[in-house]
Amino acid sequence: QVQLVESGGGLVQAGGSLRLSCAASGRTNRINDMGWFRQAPGKERDFVAAINWSDSSTYYADSVKGRFTISRDNTKNTMYLQMNSLKPEDTAVYYCAAKRYSKYDFWGQGTQVTVSS
């Protein structure tokens, strides 16, 4: 099992920045990829960004490219999401997730990000 705990959400004005953290514990040696997803009220959960735990390859949704940066610190088993130039449409609950094989099968509890206009 893998346990994930997010932190770093909050309220920020449009154009501002936030950094989210996701601390992983448990069988972290089984993780291949970790990712960030978000869910706005009344909408489906969407992919935001992902990072390969071995080679740090990164992937981004088009909507956040150039504004968000995903990174990881293997020594701390922690993943980060640096969010710059935030927009009101970035408002959502942000979830981190871990993938062992073909799907994300471990999820955190989520952290709220609210961007005011």
Number of helices: 0
**Helix content range:** under 10%
Succession of helices and strands = EEEEEEEEEEE
The description of the largest β-sheet is: 7 strands, mixed
Rg over C-alpha atoms, rounded to the nearest angstrom: 13 Å
How confident overall, as mean pLDDT? 96
Low-pLDDT parts are none
Strand runs, count: 11
What share of residues are in beta strands?
over 45%
The dominant shape is globular
N-C termini distance: 40 Å
Structure classification: mainly beta
How would you portray this structure in words?
With 117 residues, the protein is mainly β. Helices cover 0% and strands 56% of the residues. Strands 2, 4, 5, 6, 9, 10 and 11 form a 7-stranded mixed beta sheet that branches. Strand 9 and strand 10 form a beta hairpin. The chain is globular, with a radius of gyration of 13 Å. The chain starts with a strand and ends with a strand. The mean pLDDT is 96.
